[in-house]
Write a structure and sequence with these properties.
Strand order of the largest sheet: 6-5-4-3-2-1-16-17
Number of domains: 1
Shape: globular
CATH superfamily: Ribonuclease Z/Hydroxyacylglutathione hydrolase-like
CATH topology: Metallo-beta-lactamase, Chain A
Radius of gyration: 17 Å
CATH architecture: 4-Layer Sandwich
Distance between the termini: 19 Å
Structural class: alpha/beta
Number of strands: 17
Largest sheet: 8 strands, mixed
Number of helices: 3
Amino acid sequence: MDKLEITYLLNSGFFVRLGDVGIVFDDYQDPTGAVDAALPELSELYIFASHAHFDHFNPAIRRYEGNAKYFFLSSDIRLLPAAKQMPESKTIWLDTYDSYEDNGICVTSYDSTDAGTSFLVEKNGWRIFHAGDFNWWHWEGDTEENNGFARNGFKKQMKRLEGLEADVAFFPVDGRLGAAQPYGAKEFCARTETKALVTMHSVGYPRWKPSDDFFLPGKEIPVWSPVESGERRLLIPGGGFTE
């Protein structure tokens, strides 16, 4: 199994390398040009966008048309005028709970508690989960009714994800949520079989660290919380993150 190399782009954007295979998630911005710099070394490139929000889908990803095998896009993006710019022959539109398997890649989509989908990607022996905007969105100052609705929606979707196995999960730990910042990730790690966690969707906030009681006993896993575009880590099978 190849080592898995992860480069932080921005917000929820990440570039994952498995040897000469590249997987790009939610490339809203790539200030350090990490993806472009790697293109000559890649034999396969797959581009994902979890939903239509501007900080997750940028139609400029079409510039990879000549390199990408497929663009996997959440179906809500089709409602945007910019969706017409995407190459029809290479674009796979995914609704929630869809699946696609071809040419050595398997993709399963799940629901979100905000917009669009989340993804489980299986490639080269790795299982990679990207949550998109799926999270427990508990906002300080919001009404008890709204926060109750958010909690129930999150827990309903977690029933679908119960026992999910992933070598690494990209999951929001959003600083705007204040004390509720880790709620979603904590529940996700407790109820799935995730081996490593990468936090996202917290631009402008300090590097997050899990509290002593974040993990259930015996379920501690490596955590990486990037803050600067271009930060890079290796995830070693059965190990942790190394620079």
